[in-house]
Amino acid sequence: MKKILSSSKLIVLVALMLSVAIFTFGCGDDGFSVSEVQHDPFAFTGEITINGTVASFSPDDPNLFGVMDTNELMQCGRFDCGAWIMPTLYSGGHTPTVSQGDNVVLTGEFVNIGGMVTFQVTNVDVGNNIMNQIPSN
Amino acid sequence: MNTLSLVMRNITRRKGRFIFTLLGIAIGMAAFVALLALGGGMRAEIRNQAQAMGANLIVTPTDWCTFDQISIFTGEPLPASLSSEVLDEIRDIEGIFVAPYLTQASAIDMTPVAVIGIEVETMKEFSQWEMAEGQYFSTDADRSVVLGASIANQFDLGLGQEVIIRGESFPIVGVLEPVDNLDDLGVYLPIPVVQEAFEIDDNISYIGVQVENIENVESYRAAILDRVNVAVSSDEQLLESVLAILGSVEVTLQAVAAISLVAASFGIVNTMMTAIYERRREIGILRSIGSKRADIFKIFMLESAIYGLLGGVIGSAVGVLVSLFAAPTIMAGFDQIMKGASLEASIEPMTIVTAIGLSIAIAVVAGLYPAWKASNLTPVEAISYE
């Protein structure tokens, strides 16, 4: 009986440690940030993942929106502080439902459309909306 | 049997409860100590990086936000909005030596790298670089790259190979000697070449200024501001901006660790209250053979203090070990923020002493209520309890 009790305590301890380890190290990789790719987009070839925050929308194309670097947005406090807004074109079939301030993880590749560098995405993972967290809001 | 041996026997009577209560304090304390040690290490390394830059003053555009200013120390690419006219105006001031920088970015093997435009002759003198391989640039028109030591090592690049930037190939003509700071992580080209590759007009990102007489740095700052409409910060001011951000992060993390200590203290309260119920007869017997209320109070307070002492010692030891062995792993993240930095835990003896003292103090406070409850039990109450 004593041995079983000792084993159960050991199991609890190991489970606790594993939980902490998984929580700490088990979070997924969200790819590149917008600021990492903005200066030389075509140096990143093939399908890549980019994370950022939705900043703006095209008035003419519901599948075209602009994504800003999240850290830069939080530091500058507004969408129009002169930071690069990455043109993002969704080509996955149905128009994604995103709002300004949504954190997004985009999967796609850089293409040249009409002389403009555009990130053509096939998948959009929408995270939390950070409008309330932006300092100037 | 003296008081201490009585206390130790009582604490360890139920080993499982003893271990889990101790773990609560130890884990909270380990987190607290590890955060203090790593935070100290980060501060020391940030200061090191700032000193390595070699500039007494940094000239930036007036419309930069804090994010941009701090990016000077973190190796991030920066807007190019300082004109060459501004550079020429500042260069005319006597008693200063200026080095312009144009910081952009590209990628090698799908990994972001810093591309830094430099003034060839100026930078050689400003940074006192030495070549590990190959040669330095000859002129500002050279369409070639010189690599920082870490970049060359990371991507296994050397003389005779090429780097592709914005679709154009640039041959590698030299590799710098390692200097253990941000300079190790740069892909260097002459400013005009970077301006052409990135389609930037005749602009630069910022200017580093060395002054002849460090005592008069404020007068040089005023002289620059008299001539051009720019922001001029001392390296100390920029450093304080970075440290302020680090400080707020540190405070937040330490608050989290402190909350876990508070939670652990409730564990002590719970353990001690349970012990009182289990040992009512023992308390009653002690009172009936002459122990005073103060003696009972002292016994339970001592039990709490020992939880705090043991938890503090174990937690501090674990915290030190975590910070020593986790520093390289955490450095991978710190290196993303402060490129070229190396992180070592900074462990002061006073930190350990303070941590153990804090642990004992928290445990003693946690033990006050249970000790008071125990000391208020009358012998009749205690012995008659079944």
Description of the structure:
- The complex is a heterodimer of chains A (137) and B (386).
- Chain A has 3 helices and 6 strands, in the order αβαββαβββ.
- With 137 residues, chain A is α/β, with parallel strands linked by helices.
- In chain A, 26% of the residues lie in helices and 36% in strands.
- Chain A has a 5-stranded mixed beta barrel.
- Chain A has helices at residues 2-25, 34-37, 70-76; strands at residues 32-33, 48-57, 64-68, 85-90, 102-113, 116-129.
- Chain B is an alpha+beta fold.
- Chain B has 2 domains: 3-49 and 246-383, no CATH class; 62-229, no CATH class.
- Chain B has helices spanning 3-11, 15-53, 66-74, 84-91, 120-127, 149-154, 191-197, 217-227, 235-278, 280-288, 293-337, 349-375, 379-384; strands spanning 57-60, 82-83, 96-108, 111-118, 131-134, 145-147, 162-165, 168-176, 186-190, 203-204, 206-211, 231-234.
- In chain B, helix 2 runs antiparallel to helix 9 (235-278).
- The two termini of chain B are 26 Å apart.
How is the secondary structure organized here?
The complex is a heterodimer of chains A (137) and B (386).
Chain A: H1 2-25, E1 32-33, H2 34-37, E2 48-57, E3 64-68, H3 70-76, E4 85-90, E5 102-113, E6 116-129
Parallel strand pairs in A: 1-2, 4-6
Antiparallel strand pairs in A: 2-3, 2-5, 3-4, 5-6
Chain B: H1 3-11, H2 15-53, E1 57-60, H3 66-74, E2 82-83, H4 84-91, E3 96-108, E4 111-118, H5 120-127, E5 131-134, E6 145-147, H6 149-154, E7 162-165, E8 168-176, E9 186-190, H7 191-197, E10 203-204, E11 206-211, H8 217-227, E12 231-234, H9 235-278, H10 280-288, H11 293-337, H12 349-375, H13 379-384
Parallel strand pairs in B: 4-9, 6-8
Antiparallel strand pairs in B: 1-11, 1-12, 2-10, 3-4, 3-11, 5-8, 6-9, 7-8
